[in-house]
Amino acid sequence: xxxxxxxxxxxxxxxxxxxxxxxxxxxxxxxxxxxxxxxxxxxxxxxxxxxxxxxxxxxxxxxxxxxxxxxxxxxxxxxxxxxxxxxxxxxxxxxxxxxxxxxxxxxxxxxxxxxxxxxxxxxxxxxxxxxxxxxxxxxxxxxxxxxxxxxxxxxxxxxxxxxxxxxxxxxx
Length: 172
Fold this sequence. Notes:
- The protein is an all-alpha fold.
- The chain is 73% helix and 0% strand.
- It has one domain: Four Helix Bundle (Hemerythrin (Met), subunit A), CATH 1.20.120.
- The chain has helices at residues 3-31, 39-45, 49-80, 88-97, 104-119, 125-156.
- Residues 164-172 have low confidence and may be disordered.
């Protein structure tokens, strides 16, 4: 294992720790404990600036964490584990076979949802409501799958997310 790539993986884990924490918090502020989102509930959220800000924040954090995990974390974990890298869809399938994520198909669907959360909230709440509900449930999946990846990478690949001044990581 290359010390530079191990440090980079530690930095990515510390970053995703923060992203995960912020996504969980904004989802809680936006929807509470209930991911059920109907058109009326969404219209209530969109009726004031706080609801709109929370929705935008959720969409941005959802997209950012999903991008970081798929585009940075998964390739870094696979590389450190001695696996060959491929396209994102193949890397996701490999992670599913390793039982580090639940479903590659769900992760691909998450990628499709990120733009809808950011761009459709004003014009079509009846279309956005089911997408927001799906994203809420996917954010729970992302949190769970990230925990699995982290529990694998930290001890097995001997990664310390706090080494060399990389801070902000939360213990899982």
